[in-house]
Design goal:
globular, binds flavin-adenine dinucleotide, 6-stranded mixed sheet, 6-stranded parallel sheet, about 475 residues, binds NADP nicotinamide-adenine-dinucleotide phosphate
């Protein structure tokens, strides 16, 4: 088959410099490249990415109404524009190239391909219509090609989000924000059109544990509480006794709990305005099964009522009681976390579902093959904000630098040149940084026509066409 290469940028033909391959162009990959190029005198870094476009969850996870978070893209762009860094998009580890190939042609391989799937609840009727993974909803409103055709019916008035993390709050905010505010963001046009027709009036946020164990953070809750045309409705009984212990909590938890208690007491003093949408956090409830109609569409959720056991507050476990209740709703989001996938058979996962590693080192068992490292969500698990991912990527990159500095002379390895010639035999074009810059320019131009920062291209085929034009 004929392989098409689009204007790749070759840094050097010197074969005795360390060649590093990073798999995954998300924050972990870029921060690691930043560290490696800063602390190694000579190095050639190739970043291989499954999609034709870079930035991982910065582009496809971070909510459209959080543009300030996406500013890290400017730093990553500077990293990619260095002459000794190459971006090779539209190449998938496991499908187009294998880890064993990369190990043969590089001196070090760093895996940073993230956590691509969502965890499921494993309960009855979870596959019924209008039960949506938060991960896919996020991908849908952010323009991830694989999620652009997500089927979601927003014609009912009541919806529930299962889970109380920051992803759950992102989903809630996108559903409850007035459409005129969303229009100013880079949310995709298809999502905007569907959300404009939404009839959702009340949105439950269901937690299996209590207010002291919520996984969302204060900034995100504050934002939710301030949404215009939206009121937060708490169940006061969920907060019994908390006023007495709030001062003894560690600081971040204390401030978050104080904010919730303040909002609970404000809610007591206000009446509900029928024109507002309602945000309804509820606690101590585990989804037991989804209730479905004859068309296998969700009608409600049976929730088991829980008690908490254990002394250390954040580690308290929920224990089911014999009580249950029904939450009637016509749409549910499962937002209980992401999960890593095994992209290549040579990758060994540990019992926590992460790539088994010791301080980022995965495999060190060969004199001739490259040492393998892991960083970011693939190594730490799908928790933590960009700052945590940066810290981890820097740590692992430092280990890599120390290892590479200890090698007195580098064997001759040809890096991507050999990968391209020997293994990439499909008709799939490689998209390099210049290709991404064309897509970027096109998206920003399309955005201008709609008074938005950008209108994302949601089809891989179209991305490729723009990049090769
Ligand atoms: P990712 O960002 O997932 O990057 C992995 C990259 O690898 C992707 O580009 C992917 O396409 C690529 N890849 C996957 N499989 C392959 C393969 N087989 N071959 C080649 N490449 C592959 N943090 C904040 O600080 N602020 C926020 O507002 C914020 N919002 C978030 C919203 C959501 C919905 C989520 C899920 C997370 C959010 N985070 C936020 C957390 C932040 O996104 C993560 O900390 C960070 O993205 C993890 O980086 P990573 O590089 O490990 O993974
Ligand atoms: P998360 O923070 O781990 O939250 C998962 C939620 O799901 C928790 O409330 C958890 O409750 C619940 N849960 C897990 N398993 C469950 C089950 N079987 N049944 C019922 N509930 C269950 O995950 P996330 O929301 O996907 O976020 C991932 C990471 O991205 C987090 O670190 C987050 O801070 C970050 N992020 C940050 C931002 C931001 O900064 N704005 C935005 C989005 C995401 P338990 O506590 O009881 O397990």
């Amino acid at each position: 088959m004929n392989f098409i290469k689009i204007c790749t940028r070759n840094f050097t033909s010197n074969q005795n410099i360390p060649r590093v391959c990073i798999v995954g162009a998300g924050p972990a990959g870029f921060y690691a490249a930043m560290h490696l190029t800063k602390y190694l005198k000579t190095v050639n870094v190739d970043i291989i990415e499954k999609l034709p476009v870079p930035f991982g969850l910065i582009r496809y996870g971070v909510a459209p109404d959080h543009p300030e978070v996406k500013n890290v893209i400017n730093q990553f762009t500077k990293v990619a524009q260095q002459p000794n860094v190459n971006f090779y998009g539209n190449i998938s580890l496991g499908k187009d190239v294998k880890i064993s190939d990369l190990r043969q042609h590089y001196h070090a391989v760093l895996l940073t391909y993230g956590a691509e799937e969502d965890r499921s609840l494993g309960i009855e009727n979870e596959d019924a219509a209008n039960i949506v993974a938060a991960r896919r909803f996020v991908g849908w409103y952010n323009g991830l090609p694989s999620d652009k055709d997500l089927k979601i019916d927003l014609s009912g008035t009541t919806a529930a989000i299962l889970g109380q993390g920051n992803v759950a709050l992102d989903v809630a905010r996108i559903l409850l924000t007035p459409i005129d505010e969303l229009k100013k963001t880079d949310i995709t046009e298809h999502a905007l059109n569907t959300l404009a027709e939404s009839k959702i009036k009340e949105l439950y946020l269901v937690g299996r544990r209590g207010p002291l164990q919520v996984a969302f953070t204060i900034k995100e809750l504050r934002e939710q509480l301030k949404l215009s045309n939206c009121q937060t409705v708490w169940r006061k009984t969920d907060f019994e006794g908390l006023g007495n212990i709030v001062n003894d909590l560690p600081r971040p938890r204390k401030r978050l709990t104080e904010l919730m208690l303040k909002s609970v007491s404000e809610f007591e003093d206000t009446s509900i305005n029928d024109n507002n949408k309602l945000f309804k956090p509820i606690f101590f409830r585990t989804p037991n099964k989804f209730l479905v109609n004859n068309d296998r569409k969700i009608m409600g959720i049976e929730l088991t009522c829980n008690e908490l056991q254990g002394t250390k507050l954040e580690e308290q476990k929920c224990v089911p009681t014999s009580n249950s209740e029904i939450l009637n709703c016509s749409l549910a989001f499962r937002s209980i976390g992401y999960k890593c996938v095994k992209a290549d058979n040579d990758i060994i996962f540990n019992s926590k579902g992460l790539v088994a590693n010791n301080k980022g080192v995965v495999d060190n068992n060969s004199d001739t093959l490259a040492k393998v490292y892991v960083a970011g969500w693939l190594g730490t698990g799908p928790v933590g904000v960009i700052l945590h991912t940066m810290g981890n990527a820097f740590q692992v990159a430092k280990v890599m630098c120390d290892d590479l500095k200890n090698i007195s002379s580098f064997s001759s390895k040809s890096g991507f040149e050999e990968i391209e010639n020997t293994y990439l035999k499909s008709n799939n074009p490689i998209i390099n940084w210049e290709g991404w810059e064309k897509i970027d320019k096109y998206e920003v131009e399309q955005g201008k026509l709609r008074n938005k920062p950008r209108e994302k291209v949601c089809s891989i085929e179209k991305m490729i066409n723009i990049a090769v034009s």
